[in-house]
Design a protein that fits this description.
The complex is a heterodimer of chains A (470) and B (377).
Chain A: H1 5-43, H2 56-88, H3 95-117, H4 134-153, H5 162-187, H6 194-227, H7 237-247, H8 264-275, H9 277-291, H10 295-300, H11 302-325, H12 327-333, H13 338-367, H14 373-405, H15 412-449, H16 461-469
Helix pairs in contact in A: 1-2, 1-3, 1-13, 1-15, 2-3, 2-4, 2-5, 2-6, 2-13, 3-4, 4-5, 5-6, 6-9, 6-11, 6-13, 7-9, 8-11, 9-11, 11-13, 11-14, 13-14, 13-15, 14-15
Chain B: H1 4-30, H2 59-70, H3 124-127, H4 131-139, E1 157-160, E2 168-171, E3 177-182, H5 184-194, H6 215-231, H7 236-250, H8 260-263, H9 281-284, H10 287-296, E4 298-304, E5 307-313, H11 325-335, H12 348-357, E6 367-368, H13 369-376
Parallel strand pairs in B: 4-6
Antiparallel strand pairs in B: 1-3, 2-3, 4-5
Classes of the chains: A mainly alpha (470), B mainly alpha (377).
Chain lengths: 470, 377
């Protein structure tokens, strides 16, 4: 049977996308396990305390790194490869090299996490993996990014649209950010607290300029694709994009409020964070005014339900983020567990939810295997519930933590921290729910990729399916 | 937007401008701060005889900072006292004054931290200088602070059955005693924790609270002084530097100096073979000569206190010549302050200055006494 052009592209992408989605799923499970251990250690400090590999500090960092580079990195590759090739109407290129680079990327993260657990971490935010693995990560990233750019360059339609801007910029920002930070922290290390400014700038920018644009780009792609209607007020998107590009790198250092750095640094961060309401409003208008024109369709399509949950979470929590960057609020919450709220709302409530939706949208198309609706719905509801509980616990717990910490008369461990204890317990429960939810996701994904694990190696029947169904 | 090159330049510029401001700007503004005295004279200069702050870390404490990083302590502990208008850190007793950028210039890795599940540690060495308390807290925080969430670190200690002069007794709430012996790593970590104190003023930041205003604080300070006078009459930073130097002097394993095999633990040397260090005119004299010998070793005839010796001293350290600037500073400070010697401390800055001054010298090319004295004149 003759394939149409989209199916040819999908077929060319099948192996690479499946590889990255499958490895992303495994990292998600690893991160879930680390998240549970770290949450459990906060409710019972004696939990696993006799093993040096599992100190709270290490596990917490291992979780963040597995989550951002393992799950985030792999799923970014999968989603970007697919959307860019589809929009370019071009088959993927350099598949062998891309898979090879992907294997290196995953091995490097594995060694990096083992390095953290073994006590070889660096003190730089989101660069905690030992210095030795970074060249491997960087080079394998560049190989993958190169072939995505090659596909984009050979696109049939020279006009670019919003998903391409966001995906391509995220693809290019990561190596730029990394080189800048690596130069200033390891090659020509800055002295004193200049290091802290740079390390915080990298850690926060990574979330804003690497994960966020991918999720926004995916949303710009999938909402019109499923609803079959153009993005409402699309002309605003270009303004939103350049607002993020110019404001986000500035808005990320307000965490240093009152710290041992010149005062203009957090002050600029605050001003720019407030200015971020413009791009947030643009993205929110684009997504939601389109989606609410056809809300029943959004509800019926599970991928879209995930994506709209993600975009709503992006809007709400970004506005909350703006409030928390005001100096009068920041000084209360600055060192509290509100930091975990910011991290989880951005990486979980927003980025991961959109990626879940995207994966559920892509996988049936490239493998030809549908995923059971009940399993997807279970994943959606447990994820939505878990994230909501987790974020509320971190938000209210963070406020409690911060407000009480500002009362000098309260003793630290017995008053301030014990008042936050109940919230730690809630986060532990939330991480159990999320762990189950992620397990279901991974089973869904693996079942779609390898429907019959025992027959897969002997006969290639799963490869012939898309052709027969077409 | 359609031209990839222009697009790339655009997004690179958007990032680059912020980088220019935060990193290049910050580096230009405060990237080359240097130590300063507590007060400047009327012309804004550092007085000639003033002590310079912040003090460099001792070798042991510097190794302790690596343990602090490796165990992930930074995830829950900050090391910064915020400005008065930004929070109540000073009122909470976490410091006499807010931290400033100059406090961190000696640190290889700045461990500011961004979450406080545990208290701030910028001044913990001043707040809690008690060695035994710190060891107990590391072994099992809950034995001292029942509500603490800090994970115990039993892997840093050996548990023994019998109490001895080396062991520390930990009593838990059911009154069971355990005896623990700190490992070298625990000692380093404690040495680092005790070295954390910003208890000096700087030209840009005076104390916000004085001891007299705060009776509790004053009591804490008294304890600190008592503690120091029990150990010796030296300030605590010098004490740690000397302790670290003694460890290097006596150590016969990698990272040690192996000094004692020739110069003897008593510092007396061996008559006719190895010169003494106790009361030696070389040890108590010019620091530069000492630093040079510590980097490259010495051979040939040398006259010490009027007696001639002729032998070879390989560059100290195992393997030879491997001591870091800080270790050399510590061991030299030690030999200048034991066995009745008393001379000024050597800092790692002085060592690195000498090291860069003689950078061209071939490795393992030992000095001769004549050469050193010629340079001296």
């Amino acid at each position: 049977m003759k394939l149409n052009s989209e199916q040819i592209i999908d077929k060319s992408l099948k192996l690479v996308v499946c590889f990255f989605v499958a490895s992303a799923g495994l990292w998600l499970l690893a991160a879930a396990l680390f998240a549970y251990i770290s949450a459990a250690k906060l409710t019972d400090p004696f939990f696993l305390s006799s093993f040096e590999y599992f100190t709270y500090g290490k596990i917490k960092l291992a979780q963040a790194n597995a989550f951002v580079y393992g799950w985030g990195g792999n799923s970014i590759f999968a989603v970007t490869l697919w959307i860019v090739a589809r929009l370019a109407q071009t088959e993927s290129r350099g598949r062998v090299l891309v898979i090879f680079a992907g294997i290196i990327w995953n091995l490097a993260i594995t060694f990096g996490l083992l390095g953290i657990l073994d006590g070889h971490m660096t003190p730089h935010e989101m660069l905690e993996m030992p210095a030795e693995v970074w060249p491997a990560l960087f080079i394998s990233y560049c190989v993958i990014a190169f072939f995505i750019v090659v596909v984009h360059r050979s696109r049939k339609n020279k006009e670019t649209i919003a998903p391409q801007w966001f995906l391509l910029s995220s693809l290019l920002w990561f190596p730029m950010l990394f080189l800048i930070a690596w130069n200033g922290l390891e090659i020509n290390p800055a002295r004193g607290t200049v290091q802290s400014v740079l390390s915080m700038w990298f850690g926060q920018s990574l979330i804003w300029l690497w994960l966020t644009p991918v999720a926004l780009g995916a949303a710009y792609y999938i909402i019109p694709a499923i609803l079959g209607r153009a993005i409402d007020k699309y002309y605003l998107a270009v303004f939103g994009f350049w607002c993020i590009a110019t404001l986000a790198p500035w808005s990320v250092v307000h965490h240093l409020e009152g710290g041992p750095v010149p005062m203009w640094i957090p002050a600029i961060g605050t001003v720019m964070s407030i200015a971020m309401i413009f791009p947030i409003a643009v993205a929110s208008t684009n997504f939601h005014s389109t989606a609410f024109l056809d809300i029943s369709k959004v509800w019926d399509s599970l991928p879209l339900r995930f994506v709209i949950f993600g975009t709503l979470s992006y809007t709400i929590s970004s506005y909350i983020g703006v409030i928390f960057s005001l100096p009068s609020v920041a000084k209360i919450t600055q060192f509290s567990i509100i930091n975990d709220f910011h991290f989880n709302q951005r990486v979980y409530g927003f980025f991961s939810m959109i990626i879940f939706g995207m994966v559920y949208y892509i996988l049936p198309k490239i493998t030809g295997n549908e995923i059971a609706k009940g399993a997807k719905a279970f994943h959606f509801w447990t994820s939505a519930f878990g994230v909501l509980i987790l974020l509320l616990a971190y938000l209210i717990g963070g406020l409690t933590h911060g407000v009480l910490a500002q009362q000098p008369s309260l003793s630290w461990a017995s008053s301030v921290i014990s008042s936050v204890m109940p919230y730690f317990l809630i986060t532990e429960l939330a991480f159990i729910v999320l762990g189950f939810s992620q397990l279901v996701f991974v089973i869904n994904v693996w079942k779609a990729i390898i429907p019959n694990p025992f027959a897969f190696w002997t006969c290639g029947d799963s490869q012939s399916k898309p052709e027969t169904s077409a | 937007m359609n031209n990839l090159l222009k697009f790339t330049i655009g997004i690179f510029l958007s990032l680059g401008v912020a980088w220019l401001a935060f990193v290049v700007g910050a580096r230009a503004q405060f990237g080359d701060l240097s130590p300063s005295s507590q007060n400047l004279d009327d012309d804004g200069n550092i007085p000639l005889d003033a002590d310079l702050y912040p003090l460099p870390l001792s070798g042991t404490a510097e190794q302790g900072s690596k343990e602090y990083l490796a165990l992930g302590c930074m995830t829950c502990h900050t090391q910064q006292v915020r400005m008065v208008e930004a929070g109540f850190d000073v009122e909470r007793g976490w410091g006499q004054r807010p931290s400033v950028a100059r406090d961190y210039i000696h640190q290889e890795h700045v461990l500011l931290g961004n979450t406080r599940i545990g208290p701030d540690l910028a001044n913990v060495g001043r707040r809690q200088p008690d060695l035994e308390w710190l060891h107990k807290h590391l072994f099992e925080p809950q034995s001292l602070v029942p509500q603490s969430l800090c994970p115990p670190s039993p892997f840093l200690y050996d548990q023994v059955d019998q109490s001895s002069d080396k062991s520390i007794t930990v009593v838990d709430d059911s009154n069971i005693s355990r005896f623990i012996v700190p490992s070298i790593r625990a000692k380093r970590l404690v040495s680092y924790i005790r070295s954390l104190h910003q208890d000096y003023e700087l030209p840009e930041m005076a104390f916000v609270i004085n001891e007299e205003d705060e009776p509790d604080e004053a009591a804490g300070k008294e304890n600190l002084l008592d503690f120091d006078s029990n150990q010796s009459s030296l300030p605590s930073w010098l004490d740690t530097q000397i302790a670290s130097g003694k460890e290097i002097y006596m150590k016969a394993a990698p990272g040690g100096g192996l000094c004692f095999t020739c110069h003897q633990p008593t510092g007396e040397g061996l008559a006719g073979q190895f010169p003494p260090l106790a009361g030696s005119d070389w040890v108590l004299g010019d620091k530069e000569r000492l630093i040079k010998i510590s980097i490259y070793g010495l051979m040939g005839e040398i006259e010490v206190n009027g007696i001639k010796y002729n032998n070879v001293m390989a560059p100290p350290g195992i393997p030879p010549g491997s001591l870091t600037d800080q270790q050399i500073a510590d061991v030299l400070t030690y030999i200048r302050n034991d066995w009745g010697n008393s001379a000024s401390a050597v800092t790692s800055l002085e060592v690195s200055a000498v090291r860069s001054q003689i950078k061209g010298r071939a490795p393992m090319q030992m000095w001769t006494a004549a050469e050193l004295n010629a340079v001296d004149e």
